[in-house]
Design a protein that fits this description.
Two copies of one chain form a homodimer. Chain A is α/β, with parallel strands linked by helices. The first copy, chain A, is built from 14 helices and ten strands. The longest helix of chain A has 20 residues.
Chain lengths: ~325, ~325
């Protein structure tokens, strides 16, 4: 299989391309978190990004590169969540029709959010339907361009723009980061960020954080080849349940990712609760993975005094946040 | 009655004084909110301030000016909420003992938060006890310095530092604000901000937002003299239920506040819900007053393309946010 792996230059080009459309999120700091960790921790708040997650970045970069002649045919994506809304918003911004293939049992708010952004939603049954076949059918009929959630060089480059912004914000403070933590599902975001740091701040460690049992990146790095995670009981981090890293993300990870670590559902709940109670931000469980690793001491911060944590999105129900707060209330 | 009214120079001095201790919050922007209003709206996120509200600013500025000889006697404050935590944190930062007089029926989290910050909590019964007498007693015994929540020139100057930061952030963007909206209870914050803008950005309108029935600033400006609001049924904006503006805030407001407007509890609920669902931030009801006025169209934004809204704090229970989301869910 031949794949196109994006470069640092692609990330820089993506930043120029999406600048007029994406929200420039700025690092935030918390006195409570700094005091707790004995370090300076900078939060990259991608729940403030357009559509409520970083996914708009990659989708926007991909949609903008569809040749003029194919634009009227529209775009298509599979997603039960944030990628759906990112693609729908980017398509609407540029007047392309969007079709999103979603599982019938996707959360009602994510379906509503995708429709609110003007996309046509097509449902499938996770147990009985072949979603690849549905996609092939739709693409054959319409000539639409498929935008993959992470195995797509333009998407990975787009997600990497979050990394460039982190480097810029730190430079404005006259600082360099020791470590950056980002959630890892298929790996598009964390490897896009790894590309950005390799180009601009190569001494910074970039670490992916996955839910236990869905820690395909960790296992793949250990094995030196893409390796599926055991899976099993679903994690509360619905956005991070990819069975293995994508081909493109893993090709980057082998070269540029420092490590991947795993967190438990209880650690994720605690991070969502902490974010609500002390940071005063809304973070969905998967998006809190980096924060969870930090709070649980899964990443050594000894001597690493400047750390960034990417909070990737906040598209969840109040009941989800409430259940985390009830499960793990900060003292 | 003779009062000391702070000046713009006092606000500038406060900014220098508290800089090493307060969190420098930075304006955030929302694509959804901008699109909805047809304007650029900049949110000043004071729920990210140390202790979860802007109150740390004024408390820190006041504590730092207590003469050395009186510091060991400590500080005292009355508050059921955010001022309590601001004073407790400032006192602990500089090693002063703090006594906070709280109503017995204050929310458990606010009591816990104040104790977590090391303060001694003394309770009174709102119906039967005279809290002024309790304070006089405590001060006579300990020689502690009372830090009033808004009728205190040092506190007002400290709150005004939030305004200076807004002006600085806008200048970095090469922009000037047409309007700033801030919640108004006793008026310490909004008039501190009015001082800051009068000194640095005098064409910007500064507008206070109060809950209906607790709109003492609006009535006082109309009457040209401090006038109590009717009160009555309690508002969900517990932080804003001052019966009338303070003497010091009103003296500033007469000269420098452009207007005050009132919002309903339903409008406050909608703003808390919108903040959770779309802005992905945790805002307590009173702290959402400026956002509520904007969303409800209570402030004319026609031709006013650059608007800042101060979100003052996020110290509330998940159940409070949930009840607002249930009451007013965004479509």
């Amino acid at each position: 299989m031949s794949i196109t792996v994006p470069t640092f230059a692609d990330v820089e080009a993506a930043a120029e391309r999406i600048r007029p459309y994406a929200t420039r999120t700025r690092l935030i700091e918390s006195h409570d978190l700094n005091a707790r960790l004995g370090a300076r921790v900078f939060l990259k708040p991608e729940m403030f990004q357009r559509t409520g997650s970083f996914k708009f970045r990659g989708a926007c970069n991909a949609v903008l590169q569809i040749p003029q002649a194919r634009r009227a045919n529209g775009v298509i994506a599979f997603s039960s969540g944030n990628h759906a809304q990112g693609v729908a918003a980017a398509a609407r911004e540029f007047g392309l029709p969007a079709t999103i293939v979603m599982p019938k049992d996707a959360p009602a708010t994510k379906i509503a959010g995708t429709r609110r952004l003007g996309a046509d939603v097509v449902f499938y049954d996770r147990r009985t339907d072949d979603r690849e076949a549905i996609a092939r059918d739709l693409m054959a009929k319409s000539g639409a361009t498929l935008i993959e959630p992470f195995d797509n060089a333009k998407v990975v480059a787009g997600q990497g723009t979050a990394g460039l912004e982190i480097v810029d914000d730190m430079a404005a403070l006259g600082m360099t980061l020791d470590t950056v933590l980002a959630p890892c599902g298929g790996g598009g975001l964390v490897t896009g960020i790894a590309l950005a740091f390799a180009g601009r701040s190569p001494k910074t460690r970039v670490i992916g954080v996955e839910p236990e049992r869905f820690d395909g990146m960790r296992l793949s790095l250990a094995a030196g080849a893409r390796t599926p995670a055991p899976g099993g009981e679903l994690s509360i981090a619905d956005a991070l349940m990819a069975p293995a890293p994508g081909h493109i993300p893993f090709a980057i990870a082998k070269e540029k990712l420092s490590a991947a670590v795993a967190v438990t559902d209880t650690e994720l709940q605690r991070a969502v609760s902490y974010a609500f109670q002390r940071l005063k931000v809304v973070v969905e469980p998967g998006s809190a993975a980096g924060l969870a690793a930090l709070l649980a001491g899964k990443v050594d911060v000894g001597g690493r005094r400047h750390i960034a944590v990417v909070l990737t999105g906040g598209n969840c129900e109040i009941s989800t946040v409430a259940s985390c707060v009830v499960a793990v209330t900060e003292p």
